[in-house]
Amino acid sequence: MASSKGKKRRILANRQGAAAPTFTDAELEAIEQDHAEGLSVQQVVEAFVEKGERMSEATFRKYVQLGLLPRSRRVARQGKQRGSKGLYPPTTVRQLAYIRRLMGQGFTMEEIQRDFLFVRGDIEALTRQLQRVYDALGEAIETRSATREGLGMRTAMQDAREVGDDLVQRLEAIESHLTMRARMARAAV
């Protein structure tokens, strides 16, 4: 147990000396828009390296294995090449910057998992899944758009989208409140 605490202190000391990358919201939004289909591990690592931050594929994959970042989804390669490649959600750079910022503030990976990111990945997965449902239903509704039934379905679809957006916002607010409590508890210590 004592060696575990010592190791944890050394890890914290090493992290506190490293500055977290300072992505602006505009930069993060640009990355997310430019890679709406997702990012490869190489693209995520490259984004951090371009900001002067040390990041390797091995470190990135460790964060994924620990559940700090979402898993990739497999996408078939275009052309003659066989197989697939892994794409991470467009928000992965934002999440990783957040994790690195927390680590720079002295939080351990265990604390980040427990107090800050315990449902973040699930909320983001829910958002992506809702978007896929909206897209699929939207395409089906478009084929009926000229009919009265199509107009009614468009209205129902808009209502459903608003309910889904409200649900995600409420879940994010609850998560935000809980993470703020964790920060305050940490500051009180």
SS class: mainly alpha
Q: Count the helices. How many?
A: 8
Indicate how many domains the architecture comprises: 2
What is the chain-wise order of helices and strands? HHHHEEHHHH
Radius of gyration: 20 Å
Main beta-sheet strand count, sense and barrel state: 2 strands, antiparallel
- Binned strand content: under 5%
State the helicity in percent bands.
55-70%
How many strand units?
2
Q: Distance N terminus to C terminus?
A: 21 Å
Describe this protein's structure.
- It is a single chain.
- The protein is mainly alpha-helical.
- It has 2 domains: 11-107; 119-189.
- It is 69% helix and 4% strand.
- It is built from 8 helices and 2 strands.
- It has helices spanning 2-17, 25-34, 41-50, 57-65, 92-104, 109-116, 120-142, 148-188, and strands at residues 73-76, 84-87.
- The chain has a two-stranded antiparallel sheet with strand order 1-2.
- The model is unreliable at 1-18 (pLDDT under 50).
Topology of this protein?
Layout: H1 2-17, H2 25-34, H3 41-50, H4 57-65, E1 73-76, E2 84-87, H5 92-104, H6 109-116, H7 120-142, H8 148-188
Antiparallel strand pairs: 1-2
Question: Outline of this structure?
Answer:
The protein has helices at 2-17, 25-34, 41-50, 57-65, 92-104, 109-116, 120-142, 148-188; strands spanning 73-76, 84-87. It is mostly helical and 189 residues long. Strands 1-2 form a two-stranded antiparallel ribbon.
Observed structural traits:
single chain; 189 residues; mainly alpha; 2 domains; two-stranded antiparallel sheet; 8 helices; 2 strands; globular; disordered N terminus
